[in-house]
Amino acid sequence: MRQRFGPYPPSTRRPGFGDLVVVLAVAAILYLGVQLAFDAPPAVQGPDIELAPPALPWYAALSVGRMTAAYLLSFLFTIAYGYAAAYNRRAETILMPLLDVLQSVPILSFLPVVLLGLSAILPEGIAAELAAIVLIFTSQVWNMTFAWYQSLTTIGKDLREASATFRFNRWLRLKWLELPFGAISLIWNSMMSWAGGWFFLMAAESYSVGERNFRLPGLGSYLQKAASDGDIQALFLGIGVLVLVVVALDQLVWRPLLAWADRFKLEMVEDQAPPTSWFYDLLQDSRLVQQLGAHLATLNERVDNWLNKRLQPLGMPQVEISQWTPLSIGVIVVLVSTVGYGAFLAVQTLFTLSLAQWLELGVALIATFLRVTVAMLIALAWTIPVGVAIGSNPTLARWLQPVVQIAASVPATALFPAFLLLFLVLPNGLNIAAVVLMLMGTQWYLLFNIIAGASAIPQDLKHTAALLHLSPAARWRTLTLPALFPFIITGAITASGGAWNASIVAEYTEFGGEIRSVMGIGATIAHATADGEFALLLAATLVMILAVVAINRLLWHRLYVLAEERFRME
Amino acid sequence: MSQTNVLLQLSNVEQRYRSGQRTFTAVENVNFTMTEGEFVALLGPSGCGKSTLLRIITGLQKPSEGRVLYRDQPLQGVNPHATIVFQTFALFPWFSVLENVEIALKARGLPASVRIPRAMELLDRVGLDGFESAYPRELSGGMRQKVGFARAMAVEPELLCLDEPFSALDVLSAESLRNDLIELWIEGKIPTKAILMITHNIEEAIMLAGRIVVMDKGPGRIVADLPVDLPYPRQRNTAAFTALVDRVYGILAGQTQAEHLELGTAPGEPGTTRMLPQVSIGDLTGLLEHLAGLARGHADIYLLPERLGIDSDEVLRLIEAAELLGFVHVAQGDVALTPLGDTFADASILARKNIFAVRIRRLPIFKWLMAMLRASEGRSLEWDVVRTALELEFPPDEAERQLDAIVDWGRYAEVLAYDDSRALITLEPEAGVLEKQGL
User: Fold this and answer.
1) CB < 8 Å to B78, chain A
2) Which end of chain A is less crowded, N or C, counting CB atoms within 10 A of the terminal residue's CB?
3) H-type alpha helices, A13-105
4) pLDDT along chain B (439 residues), means of 10
5) Interface contact A167-B107, CB threshold 8 A
């Protein structure tokens, strides 16, 4: 398991003018959403949720449907955005910094604004559906786009020259060169995106603030209703169905895809243990599938021929440096002035807040920061020893790996209602529940990376450490921890992002008809949404985004660069 | 082979590229004609622009100046009558052997009923029948390159271009594949009208080609155009063959010049800055020790590759480095150890370092860097600062390579120190003391 799990490479780019533009644009868009939110209906009645078991398959189907819709959207976006960034120098200079900021923005912080904004212009049901899909889309798309852009820009010059000399046209280049080259990385990233998508789907399906109940019929709202009603049986049933759906997708979709995609690997050596899938083997042996395959091959030939007659062979890709045309200048002027005006209005709105409110925001931010830090420390404290134990012991790994994978496949937000049920009876219960939710959302990335890191420590170094009679403590200091460092950092970057996201749903909740909340930036966003304090909503969302982007830039990127330059074994 | 069937004509071709404010010339003033029936080898050391020239000829790249005519027509875009066999094979790893050959035909719109038999027939001809459904990663390097040849010949190109096709192969595979190629070519088993092969291997060029065009670097240009009138199959150990090999080594190794010409000028000054050849000090020492073991420290350059077990390109680079340091003298394809080189070869490790230090301090590029270091705080400069300064003289990737070589040589001689974690180049204090003593 050498694959590293995490967002695409935190860039080593220095923060620049582009970042400022992106942040201003985000502020302008948020402002627009908040403006719309003024017209949002004051009370929203969510659909009734049926707790009877027969309703579950239907809810599961609805949830999977939302995920699929968002994924398809992500995939199309990925292909188009990556193409534009990889083949147009000027687009690249704008699109890549944009992507870099967008992937570190805490997506859930947008949820209230998106929900309120959309419900002002669309019927409630449709608005909530659309908001959920947009939310999942924004959680899925960035790492896929990065992966695609990266593979487009790393295709070897020799393969590109071969494609040009053998006269591939645009279609053949996509089908024979670019898609195969990026296939494995696209599939791995799609898997990660689905896992992340569940987290946000569960949150979006069960979101409600104050008088507005935006919940959607689906597994997320089912779990919330079950916990809220204290129906333990339904709660377990719901979690069981969710796990079943996640495992089924893994076994019937992703594993077969990985087994099939093994042919696209770029290494010119045979793999010792290629990915396998029982379902893929089953499909390959099926007569029906073989016949279908033959028909598809004929169709494929027809499509190729049809396109071959219409498309010209391409030369080497010219990285286009498009000329400024009056049209493009016009578009840019309009865009810049719109963003500028929006950002100006946003700033103006921010000035309506009192100093006391700003101070309160600062305190709330620190409270959430402390919660995130505690969750990260707990996660590190248990994942490092356990991860090393699993990673350096193949027998243990064989037994525990599947267990860990299933445990990790349950989106933390789906478990949140269950935590509430458990912890709200305790003093300071929501605080504990919030930290536990953050922990659940963060620890798996760390664990997977540490397992991968531990299993990648070269055997000869371990032997050397043993020959030198290093004490266990010295061995950890001189070998294990330095070797794990890059993996811990990669895991921690993702984990930190997940923890900040979780704060939105963790710090404010409606449970059993009662509103509970703790001090924190997530709670501030929720209160502002509930009370219609739109200036505060804008300010809190912006503060959270800026805080997370700043932490990424100032802390994680530096650690990442250090890890890559000093501690990478390859 | 009448002169009327001109296939390809390059006139005054020049390739420049810009980097920052500077313009660098990759190849200049290339005039070159190929006719039907010719097998031409384009021979030269690495960095002489021969690959660039191949890309211009195939239309993958457009030259900055000059004209490329193919059958009297100016070349527009990728040349449809030429294909390339790549050094790195450039096979699509996700396609089987058969599919790799087939795609070349499919991209030209040939139906399955035509392309599959033709692809099979070509695989058969290069000796790969039975491997159609294998994937490239299952094959050895030699077999992969056979797929490369089958794919390039499948579309029946008039001009077959070979881009160092044997240099990534082991010695035996390369030899057998060369023989296969020659057989296909002289027996007319392939419809190809002409072959253009890029290589840095002198023996290989003389073994295969009917004509050798020799290029040299700084900037890339054609320096010789020799016919090879030896009958096939050619034997390496005949007098005529070795005479020709000797002659080409003579052209490429040049002649040791007067010292001020040999050393060139410092970066940023008028005149050319001599590039440090990319060699390892260990290999250089090995060469000098080998020469010291010979009578009068004297050798025919063409004999060295086989004796030392390295290829001709590397031998030439080592000799260039030794010549630059004043350890050897080169004339007419022969290399001879100078008294200094002889002393170096006999000296202890520490004494060698001292001799080396004294010699590199004479090189303008080192004088220039040491003056800069002395003038700076802590006698240190960041890597990036020095590289940027070198970019006034060299293109960015060459500047990086040159700095690599400078630091490598400087560290060996204990003239420079380099701290990797801070990317800092420092002048060693001992060096300063020695200099004050006038050493």
Assistant:
1) 164-165, 167, 313, 315-316
2) C
3) 17-37, 55-87, 89-102
4) 75 86 85 93 88 92 91 90 92 92 89 90 89 90 92 91 90 89 86 91 91 88 92 87 90 81 79 86 93 88 88 90 91 90 91 92 90 90 91 86 93 90 84 46
5) yes
Strand pairing of B424-427 and B416-419?
A: antiparallel
Q: Show which of B323, B351, B379 is a domain's final residue.
A: B351
Rounded to 5°, the CA angle B184-B190-B196 comes to 80
Inter-chain residue contact B86 with A161, CB threshold 8 Å: yes
**ipTM surpassing 0.85:** no
**Across residues A246-251, what is the average pLDDT?**
89
pLDDT the model gives residue B259: 77
Using a CB–CB cutoff of 8 Å, tell me whether A263 touches chain B.
yes
Q: Do A315 and B77 touch (CB under 8 A)?
A: yes
Q: Are B60 and B83 part of one and the same domain?
A: yes
Contact call for B90 and A267, based on CB within 8 A: no
- What is the structure's pLDDT at A124? 78
Q: Do A313 and B78 touch (CB under 8 A)?
A: yes
Q: For testing the chain B interface, which of A161, A165, A177, A300 should be mutated: the one with the most B CBs within 10 Å? A: A165
Asked, for residue B269, whether it belongs to a domain, the answer is no
Distance spanning both ends of chain B, measured CA to CA: 63
- For residue A18, the distance in angstroms to the closest alpha carbon of chain B comes to 22
Q: Are A21 and A180 in contact (CB under 8 A)?
A: no
CA distances from B310 to B27, B183, B287, B290 (A): 27, 27, 11, 13
CATH value of A354-570 in 1.10.3720.10, 1.25.40.10, 1.20.1250.20, 3.20.20.150: 1.10.3720.10
The position carrying tokens 């570190």 is: A104
Domain boundaries, chain A: 49-276, 283-311, 354-570
Domain of residue B427, residue span: 363-436
* Residue-averaged pLDDT of chain A: 83
The CATH number of domain A49-276 is 1.10.3720.10? yes
- The mean pLDDT of A147-154, rounded to a whole number, is 88
Indicate the pLDDT class of residue A15, thresholds 50, 70 and 90: low
Interface contact flag, B155 A166, Cβ < 8 Å: yes
Cβ of A248 under 8 Å from any chain B Cβ?
no
Supply the DSSP string of A14-38, one letter for each residue. PP-HHHHHHHHHHHHHHHHHHHHHT
